Every structure is written in C-alpha cells, then in structure tokens.
Amino acid sequence: MKTQFIDIPTTYDTICDVFVAYPEEKGAFPAVLLYMDAFGPRDSLYEMAKTIAARGYYVLLPNLFYRVCRAPVVDVKFPAKAADMPELIRQITPLFHNFTPDVAVKDAVLYFEFLAKQRQVMPGKIGITGYCLGGALAIRTAAYYPDRIAAVASFHAASLATDAPDSPHLLVKKIKAELYIAHADNDMFNPPAQIERLKEALDKSGVRYEAELYQDAAHGFAMADLPAHNPEALKRHWEKLFPLLERNLGVRKAAV
C-alpha cells in the first residue's frame, strides 16, 4: 500500500491538502473520492481510505475545509469521548463560515483534474463515498457531474431533504450513478420525515438506488473514533460499499 499527503494548488490562491492511498503494485486503478465527515481528515479516515485502496482502488481524501485550515481541523484527541463532543462542535462551527454546498461541489472539478493527472488512476468515471456532511456532498456531486460519477455511497448524511431550494432530494433526478444511502434510525439530523421525502424523490427520479435504515445506529455510526460508532453498522457499511464499487467501477488488478 502506498500513501501520500499532497498539496494541490487551487485557483483561489490557496492549497488543498489531500491524502491518497493506492495499491503498491504497478498498474492503474479506478478512482474513489472519499468525502470526510465534519471533523476532518484524521487517522480513522486515513485507515478507511487504505481499506478501500486495498480492494484495488486509488482513493483521494481531500480536506474540505482547506480554505480555512490544513488538516487536522480540530485539536481534540481521537478517539473522542462523549464529553469531548461539545468542544469538537465548538471548534468546527467557524469552519462552516467558508463552507457552503455550492462552493464544496465546485471543488469537485479540482479533484477530477488531479485524478486525471495521476498515472496510477484509470481514465473514466469514478466512485464517491461520503460521511455526514460528506454524504450529502456525495449526492450533490453526482447530480452536478452526472457523466463523471458511476457509483455513490452516502452514510449518516444530514439534511438530505429539507425545504431549501437546493436540497439534495431535489437534485437526485440528475444522477446517472448507482446510489446507496444508509440512514441511522437514531439521527436527529436526519429525521424520519426527511428520509421519507428523499425516498419519494428517488422513486420518482428513476435513479438506481438502495436506501437502508440501520437499526440501533446514531449519526456518525461509521466513524470508529467517535462515540456514535457502531461496529455492526460499520461492518454493514463495508458489505454494501465494496459491491457497489465493484459493480460500477470494476477492480483493476495490478500489472505483473
């Protein structure tokens, strides 16, 4: 396994710091964009990127808050405890002042261009997996760039079907990728009414999708370093993510 921390110049006179992981063997591999949760790139997400890469993919994990600060974006020690959560929330709140869905989805072009220049990346469509805010962004990205995305997975995302004019559920009709969405049954940021509204939009859209409600799971269940972590839900997440990627991206074996 090869891993690197890379700085990507942007048109905003800033640097986007990213983490990449890919198989050590020679060859080019399908690309997967991993969108972080609200607490930013850190050891647990690097491990997730490596787990995906080990299946035969080139994984790009960008710091979505790069305009404000480099990773790590918080200074609370992980794994976080329940008592740490108020401080974590306090630290990430200012980061959202320069982070909007419109700005974040435009950054996808930066990631596409970077991936296209990597000799370890196969040309063609890519996959996206996203968590928390990254889960909503994964859906938005697939809608804004339908011809670039083949597979999308969204885990414990928030605000997927709100009254906002640009709510993700209003965009799903544009998606051409196969979509998998995992909701938590104990998620204050994604109430049952929004889950149902999203389902109605997906059914009308004709998009290929599967949506599941994970039982006894809370917002953040896939994050091994957060109090909400649910080992069974995380296992289920891998069991659904890998087949999704394989169906739509294949697995390029390393060259001999």
Structural features, described:
With 256 residues, this protein is α/β, with parallel strands linked by helices. The protein has one domain (2-249): Alpha/Beta hydrolase fold, catalytic domain (Rossmann fold). It is 31% helix and 23% strand. The chain is built from seven helices and eight strands; from the N terminus they run E-E-E-H-E-H-H-H-E-H-E-E-H-E-H. It has helices at residues 43-53, 85-92, 101-106, 108-116, 133-144, 192-205, 231-249; strands spanning 2-9, 15-22, 31-35, 58-62, 126-131, 149-155, 178-186, 209-218. An eight-stranded mixed β-sheet has the order 1-2-4-3-5-6-7-8, with helices on both faces. The radius of gyration is 17 Å and the shape is globular. The mean pLDDT is 95.
CATH top level class name: Alpha Beta
Count of structural domains: 1
Architecture in CATH? 3-Layer(aba) Sandwich
Uncertain residue segments: none
User: Approximately what portion of the residues adopt beta-strand conformation?
Assistant: 15-25%
Secondary-structure-based class equals: alpha/beta
What average pLDDT do the residues reach? Answer: 95
Using the coordinates shown, work out and report the CATH topology: Rossmann fold
Overall radius of gyration = 17 Å
What is the CATH superfamily label?
Alpha/Beta hydrolase fold, catalytic domain
Which strand order spans the largest sheet, edge to edge or round the barrel? 1-2-4-3-5-6-7-8
The coarse silhouette is globular
Helix content: 25-40%
SSE order: EEEHEHHHEHEEHEH
Tally the beta strands: 8
Tell me the span between the first and last alpha carbons.
16 Å
Q: Let me know the largest β-sheet.
A: 8 strands, mixed
